[in-house]
Specification:
The chain has eight helices and eleven strands. The protein is an alpha/beta fold and about 230 residues long. It folds into two domains: about 120 residues, Rossmann fold (3-Layer(aba) Sandwich), CATH 3.40.50.2300; about 100 residues, Orthogonal Bundle (Arc Repressor Mutant, subunit A). A five-stranded parallel beta sheet has the order 2-1-3-4-5, sandwiched between helices. A four-stranded antiparallel beta sheet has the order 6-7-8-9, with helices on one face. Strands 10-11 form a two-stranded antiparallel sheet. Strand 1, helix 1 and strand 2 form a beta-alpha-beta unit. Helix 6 packs across helix 7 and helix 6 packs across helix 8. The protein is elongated, with a radius of gyration of 18 Å. The protein starts with 5 loop residues before the first strand and ends with a strand. The relative contact order is 0.11. One of its GO terms (molecular function) is transcription cis-regulatory region binding. Keywords: DNA-binding, Phosphoprotein, Transcription, Transcription regulation, Two-component regulatory system. This is Two-component system response regulator.
């Protein structure tokens, strides 16, 4: 990420878009607002934004469908979804299909800025950060959000990737469910412990299918989960 971060805002509420653009301008960020999903599609391809704020309910498209498609095409793209629908199941769905964060309307402007700032910080690792984690038989690219086992790409959801990244960056150390919840979602929403258990179980199964005979993630009774390097 060089120069000013460029943020694509896809929302059919013109008044809200104007407010958010002014808010972000004060932070030194460039904003490219569009009102439809179709314009958003073109902007993602031509503008190459650093982050996208995407509304779920658009006049010509479903935000969830756009999120899923953009995440598959642009793995490193930062994606925050916001909507008037604040139901926890909607939030879980948004995170499941690839969103980095989820903010319900109406939102506090300072919270929006804080979440975007945190997302941009993750999009631009510092020199001391390790973007590629390598283990015997497993490679995790934190920038591309790509996991390879025996040189084969392992298809993970956004949540599963974040769980693996958090665990793999602390090999041999048990991470609590609360810590893993925080790794999955940086905002105020936190998945339930049992949701994390289900996600870890899915992650573990996918890794075992890709690396037969290797258990990369193990349960530590009373503590949480640990990544076991080989």
């Amino acid at each position: 990420m060089q120069g000013k971060p460029l943020i694509l805002l896809v929302d059919d509420d013109a008044e809200l878009s104007t407010m958010v653009a002014a808010l972000f301008a004060r932070e030194g960020w460039d904003v490219f607002p569009v009102l439809t999903g179709g314009d958003g599609e073109r902007a993602v391809a031509t503008q190459r934004p650093d982050a996208v704020l995407l509304d779920v309910m658009l006049p010509d498209a479903n935000g969830y469908d756009l999120c899923r498609r953009w995440r598959a095409a642009h793995p490193s793209l930062g994606l925050i979804m916001f909507t008037a629908r604040g139901d926890p199941l909607d939030r879980v769905l948004g995170l499941e299909i690839g969103a980095d964060d989820y903010l319900a309307k109406p939102f506090e402007p300072r919270e929006l800025v804080a979440r975007v700032r945190a997302l941009l910080r993750r999009q631009a690792p510092g020199r001391g950060d390790t973007a590629l984690l390598r283990f015997d038989g497993l490679a995790i690219d934190l920038l591309k959000r790509e996991v390879r086992a025996a040189d084969r790409v392992v298809a993970l959801t956004s949540v599963e990737f974040k769980l693996l990244a958090a665990l793999a960056q602390a090999p041999g150390r048990a991470l609590s469910r609360a810590g893993l919840c925080a790794a999955v979602q940086t905002g105020g929403y936190r998945p339930l412990d049992r949701t994390v258990d289900v996600q870890v179980a899915r992650l573990r199964r996918k890794l075992q299918d890709a690396s037969p005979g290797k258990a990369w993630v193990e349960t530590v009774r009373g503590e949480g989960y640990v990544f076991v390097p080989h």
